[in-house]
């Protein structure tokens, strides 16, 4: 009689691991689809914030499943700093066209021309100033709900968010005044001028996102995967060498194999060293990561003056 040892009995098979993973992702997808449909049913003028980044592409995939291609019942909104990676904005336009979705783009540069945004100096990051342009877009289109791809695991301030996050008539977030969400019951009542920011993938992690991208074969901008790029080391980060982020006199320019864990304004977004060529490779890297994606890649999160909580109170995503 061939008896198995006790450790053998505890080891799950590959098929069992796959079923567990799919069950977990199915539950997250089901919750996200439910929230996307809840927004469509509860608000008159919702919009989905769409940057062309991985999280918004996961949201868009869930919206496609919720409503069907060409039937997403709200427009896509992009707040463009003018300093975005062209690989991402090109992919954004392509994906919106494929889905037959309305894409609205509003630019920080237009806010600068109106005088509502003023930079301290020409080289200042425009990332924080997106709040002004966003609030102007909300007023222009009278949006009452904005669906975003923020997740609670990204950053401490985002961990305080409700799924339906109330904003007052000034577009401000007050963390102590958020409404309870017991038993997946959402209070969506609004006073005139108020709106909600809705985060359907709040309960996802970076690993969940990449596992879902792998499972659903979601196409992403090429810079999410390994490529060669000129970088310099600065404050523990790899800063891409561009016209907007030139090297300093004392910095050595190197060509490294890198990828971006998150994408945003060129002036504050950094890649990480990586040879991950597809989503499966990224899943493996993410399992081993000991620093959050924002902590490893965002220059503007390194200073207390630009803290996420302050920015969110001022109207940031």
Summarize the structure.
With 317 residues, the chain is α/β, with parallel strands linked by helices. It has eleven helices and ten strands. 39% of the residues are buried.
Q: Give the overall shape, derived from the CA principal axes.
A: globular
Order of helices and strands: HHEHEHEHHEHEEHEEEEHHH
Q: What structural class should be given to the helix and strand makeup?
A: alpha/beta
Q: Considering DSSP H and I runs of 4 or more, what fraction of the residues is helical? A: 25-40%
Largest sheet: 6 strands, mixed
At the first level of CATH, the class of the largest domain is Alpha Beta
Model regions low in confidence, pLDDT < 50 over at least 5 residues: 1-9, 302-306
Beta-strand percent range? 5-15%
* CATH topology-level fold name of the largest domain: Rossmann fold
**What distance lies between the first and last C-alpha atoms, to the nearest angstrom?**
63 Å
Named CATH architecture of the largest domain: 3-Layer(aba) Sandwich
Total helical segments: 11
